[in-house]
Amino acid sequence: MEVRIKILFTSICHTDLSAWQGENEAQRAYPRILGHEASGIVESVGQGVTEMEAGDHVVPIFNGECGDCVYCKCEKTNMCERSGVNPFKTVMVSDGKSRFSSKEGNPIFHFLNTSTFSEYTVLESACVVKIDPQAPLKKMTLLSCGVSTGVGAAWNSANVKPGSTVAIFGLGAVGLAVAEGSRARGASRIIGVDINPNKFIKGRAMGITDTINPSEIKKPVHESIREMTGGGVDYSFECAGNLDVLREAFSSTHEGWGLCVILGIHQTPRLLPLHPMELFNGRMIIGSVFGGFKGKSQLPHFAQECMNGVVNLDEFITHELPFEKINEAFQLLVDGKSLRCLLHL
């Protein structure tokens, strides 16, 4: 039930960056091959794999879908008991061993079910999605993580309605994907919040209608948003992985029905900055993993929608480099100069 893929394109997400920098204890298993956003072609399949064959165009997914467990059979979740996202997982399920090794024969560990910073990688078939061979693989790389996570959060987790108001905290690739998804759903007002004003230009091209730079205002962000929207937004999305930002995102939603969706990865042991009684005012807060998409069963349709122009993928690719310049790509992300730097092998 494993698939070997020849990686053609891969890109760097902030999760790769935090793992490289050792910010999360769960990600400190080394040596390890990072990378989880990619596209490629099936090189070979293992015993039991029937839905794919050599030559198929595929994208890897960090949050798999085995199709058989109680989670996969439940329409209310996109979790998977066997192949769901697990930052502590470093080996394959079938035998508890790695498919990578050094020249000396020592194991090199897997990362987020995928490990795409490699010319070839091996994944459980539950973490491989077959897509239309007519779909441009370069663009399909974005569906492995960032775009699916953001657009899916707007479509699946929040179910943004036409004419609604949205606030997005953090305008990286995921935040801008939320904007793109909200625009596609007909949101009337999309407020982008970020301390980097350079992101506002790209944001406006992807659906952002209003911008707020917290460093340039004298009042809390949520107060400004409430004033702008007559009480608060219908939906807010926290994409920064910062609890203080999360507090502002939650408080910016409207009493009675406002929904705050958590997308940022929170590295610290700090807990939610909320008092339970605040939920009695009708505001809600939820988390979203991979945008609520069931990868294998729903991603091919999403890929088709992207091909049809429902979601504009071109705006997300800000740089392209050969894979051997991966260090330059990491630096672009560190400096806040790129959304997605596409690396071609």
UniProtKB/TrEMBL annotation:
<feature type="domain" description="Alcohol dehydrogenase-like C-terminal">
    <location>
        <begin position="173"/>
        <end position="296"/>
    </location>
</feature>
<dbReference type="Pfam" id="PF08240">
    <property type="entry name" value="ADH_N"/>
</dbReference>
<keyword id="KW-0862">Zinc</keyword>
<feature type="domain" description="Alcohol dehydrogenase-like N-terminal">
    <location>
        <begin position="2"/>
        <end position="131"/>
    </location>
</feature>
<comment type="subunit">
    <text>Homodimer.</text>
</comment>
<dbReference type="InterPro" id="IPR013149">
    <property type="entry name" value="ADH-like_C"/>
</dbReference>
<dbReference type="GO" id="GO:0004022">
    <property type="term" value="F:alcohol dehydrogenase (NAD+) activity"/>
</dbReference>
<comment type="similarity">
    <text>Belongs to the zinc-containing alcohol dehydrogenase family. Class-III subfamily.</text>
</comment>
<keyword id="KW-0479">Metal-binding</keyword>
<dbReference type="Pfam" id="PF00107">
    <property type="entry name" value="ADH_zinc_N"/>
</dbReference>
<dbReference type="GO" id="GO:0005829">
    <property type="term" value="C:cytosol"/>
</dbReference>
<dbReference type="GO" id="GO:0051903">
    <property type="term" value="F:S-(hydroxymethyl)glutathione dehydrogenase [NAD(P)+] activity"/>
</dbReference>
<keyword id="KW-0520">NAD</keyword>
<protein>
    <recommendedName>
        <fullName>alcohol dehydrogenase</fullName>
        <ecNumber>1.1.1.1</ecNumber>
    </recommendedName>
</protein>
<keyword id="KW-0560">Oxidoreductase</keyword>
<dbReference type="InterPro" id="IPR011032">
    <property type="entry name" value="GroES-like_sf"/>
</dbReference>
<dbReference type="InterPro" id="IPR013154">
    <property type="entry name" value="ADH-like_N"/>
</dbReference>
<dbReference type="InterPro" id="IPR036291">
    <property type="entry name" value="NAD(P)-bd_dom_sf"/>
</dbReference>
<dbReference type="GO" id="GO:0046294">
    <property type="term" value="P:formaldehyde catabolic process"/>
</dbReference>
<dbReference type="InterPro" id="IPR002328">
    <property type="entry name" value="ADH_Zn_CS"/>
</dbReference>
<dbReference type="GO" id="GO:0008270">
    <property type="term" value="F:zinc ion binding"/>
</dbReference>
